[in-house]
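ok here's Membrane protein, seq below lol
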Amino acid sequence: MNRRAWILFALVAVLWGIPYLLIKIAIEDLSPMMVVFGRVAIAALVLVPVAAVQGSLRALRRNAVPVVVLGLIHIVGPFLLITYGEVHISSSLTGLLIAIEPVLIALLMLRAEPVTPVRAGGLALGLVGVAVLVGLDVSGDRLGLLGAGMILLATLLYAVATVYVQRRAADLPPTALVAGTTTVATVVLAPFAAFSLPTGAVSGGSWVALLALGLLCTAVALLAFYGLIGEAGPNRAGLVTYANPVVAVLLGVAILDEPIGVSTLAGFALIVAGCWLSTRPAPAPAPVVECTMAAR
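and the structure came out like this:
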């Protein structure tokens, strides 16, 4: 990756490691639906004027379908699933489960990239890591299993969206794409959020967490991520999930006092190893050397 791609990679890694902590704080006083609506509405309010000033909104007219699709599969679906999932599981486990995204991207791109024994082993190893995490952390807890299932489904949607961006929306300016998708999400969620308004007092911490979710973890992070896909492609962009869980776990343990044991670390190690192996490029075929005999 070039220098710009590495900068975007580092920025996204930090900004997408923070949301799980902020979601935990926000849902103490706000409903999950209100948290998701609030963060996308804040992002849209910031991004639409930015895209308008840059003149990139015009590009949305001829790309309405991809923008609507991405608004649903990259924002509405995953944000709701993650926020509701965190009602039942810890923020650190959420971050660890989302680390499986590169494996899912590799599975989605099997037709485009050859399957080598190393890649196949990596895919299997990553899935074993998920099984270890879920089996040891939430085994016997039905609500915990439900929460983990929601997170994994959200991760699958993230993987689908990452591939879709490259195939259908890579030429769109990132500001227009993020402004469009967050606006779509805001419009879709507004009717549901109207019935989820807080009925009691909301602490300042919850409001600050919601503001940070919208401004930093949604607006800025999505801009950086779409730019990263354009610079490095979906496979390498998906590798940002290597770093996200580290930030999520450190914050969850340090601030929320969430437990983490050897089994959790082992599951994460399996996922990271699987992601690394499954996303390795296939070796280039050896050049064919044609030998000809000179006529005598």
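fwiw The chain has one domain: 3-113+142-257. kinda neat tbh
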